[in-house]
User: What shape does this take?
Amino acid sequence: MTTDPELLRERAASALLAARARTHLLTSCVEPPDLVAQHSPLMSPLVWDLAHIGNQEEQWLLRTVGGRDPLRPDIDSVYDAFEHPRAERPALPLLAPDEAHAYLTEVRGRVLDVLEHTPLHGGPLLDAGFAFGMIAQHEQQHDETMLITHQLRRGSPVLGEAEPPVADVDVLAAEVLVPGGPFIMGTSTEPWALDNERPAHRRLVPPFLIDTTPVSNGAYQRFIEAGGYRDPRWWTPDGWVQVQEHTLRAPLFWKRDGRQWLRRRFGVTEPVPPDEPVLHVSWYEADAYARWAGRRLPTEAEWEKAARYDPSTGRSTRYPWGDQDPAPGHANLGQRHLRPAPVGSYRDGASPLGVRQLIGDVWEWTASGFLPYPGFAAFPYREYSEVFFGDRYKVLRGGSFAVGPVACRGTFRNWDLPVRRQIFAGFRTARDAGPEVAG
Assistant: This one.
């Protein structure tokens, strides 16, 4: 990334403005009753996310970075995500939609003034504009959360985006061999990387094979038709409890209609496209499919090596395609499309080893719990990562069509409970490489 102060300001301003344009789209396409309603106990009302975005921006960029007097200290507690679980947020004294929009506009105007007059060096919050990048990523993460809420919302469609490009699919091998040996995992040089991505460290990974593409809807349907949801052999004990207690029979939002499967997608009911990556499956479902297929989920280290390792140089790149920022031909990101692209798409985004769609389309469950890297240091607050560390949460990698490019890279780590199905998550599988394969 550049060190030129003016270019850094332009980059920070562009990231903030892109996030705000998306926030406006997601909150202006519905009427106020939909903004204040809770469409699922798993999610906040949209208007809570809206004002929370502004409150975090005020606290970090106006007060902490800019040294400005607080605008609305009275609402700090209301929009504290750790003080109030999502199910309780509708009962809070939330800002009304018009008031929330006005608050965001006022905060943003002052933030752009702070950005114009703040030196982007002199400490970890300021260096390379980290605090501004952190807040842009935070807003994009909540934009993804609000898009999930839109998927859960009942009613007529209100969002519309272009269809993904037609897949430029050549004849692909089913799996790719990733050679054994060390690689550099994580980062110590990515200026806007968050604390759980740091520090860079050497990781030794034995040889393994990984799916060239994410598992498709068509492949997952074969698991369903083979009785996958009725056979406890494929499930962990906790996963089998989930199947029985919630009568799971297919991914979330799917339903059977005669001989075909239909799905609900942002208010539209449509046939399940067999060539798209499967979406809205929990970790338990991904793990069960992998066992049924005689495979397993990749570990987080395996996933990152497949995504970043260039065997010709021994380097770990920022993205599978290299070090340049994502372009539309690399990956399906940023809500440009409201669905994953067909498996095998984005030839230009493939890794040096030939693995495709590692960035964008669907978050990919891994086998790993969410743990700190050696030498981890919480920054700038414990509640971003540290309080979630442990095997209770499973790591997801790669982003989805709903992730802003600023909040997605080869080192970016997401995590969630293994029961989660409303998130835009799919998976790919892996297997150990025997001596005859590893060579």
User: Anything to note?
Assistant: The mean pLDDT is 96. The chain has ten helices and 14 strands. Residues 162-439 form a domain with the paralog of FGE (formylglycine-generating enzyme) fold (CATH 3.90.1580.10). The chain has two domains: 5-152, 162-439.
